# Entry
Amino acid sequence: MKWIEAKIVFDHPDTDLAADLISNMFYDFGLQGVVVEDPEIEPAEDWAEDAIGRPLQHAVTGYIHQDAQADSRCKILEEKLAQLKVSLNLICRLTYKELDEQDWAHAWKAYFWPQKITSNIVVKPTWRDYQANGNDIVIELDPGMAFGTGSHPTTALCIAMIEKYLRRTDTFLDVGTGSGILMIAAEKLGAETLCGIDKDELAVEIAAENLKLNKVNPARFCLKAGHLVDEINDSYSFITANIFSHVIIELLKDIKSVLTVGGTFVCSGIIEENRSTVIAAMEDTDFEILETAVKEEWVAIVGRLKVKGQRAAGKEQHAAGRMPRARGRANRG
# Structure
């Protein structure tokens, strides 16, 4: 299998903003992973000898599967970048490089290191060493081609909200499960049963392997391939959806068929400019908004499905939560 490495080297006074917007362009385009290079990042103390050194310039890189649609995808990418250059007054250069499967794997894995998502939860790549502390909850992960390593702000936001709101009696559904990372986090935090659904059959296979890698009892989880909740027949008390805003709004049309009354819904994949639109759609679907959190211009929203006729408990909190900003290295989900 061949891949095309699309690398955008850029210059802009606000490098964080530029990197976020370019990364968003890649994610909207549907690429499997994005690597952000920042010359100002200090290498971690425990980086090994094979770690990538400090980059020389600001850049964002995405990887495109080289198939029959590759040319049209590259054209769309170039059109989006041209629009961004005008709107942001961005100086940039786009280059392509062909990679085989082995080179592609090395290209992004070189940036993927153990990462502490919350004060207790650590995501550890299977090929890295990590010395766990007494309170660490360690998620072993090999995402393969699936979205979700914990390094992307939306995944980190979802994990933080699961840690905060999940009850040990909850049944858990992850819509767009990718690598299965949110299912694993929920299991380690006490969820009774787990289910994940993803439109990508390969992601379903990868999620199954990661759940087994983390010693999750196969009797406690199920995985399905399908569109949103079309293949889900049971109800769950806690649902996550780390997908794009317009897909979340589509999901809300059917969410009452799979979320119990009083159940919790955590959604992310939302850029800040779409926050109010998603909140309004959730409120129209009888959700009480419990919290919003923001990280690197991405938003997570937590809602509780109200009993019919119930009024909101108090003043909404969705202007309150902003997570600390982190400088990106490899945003592969």
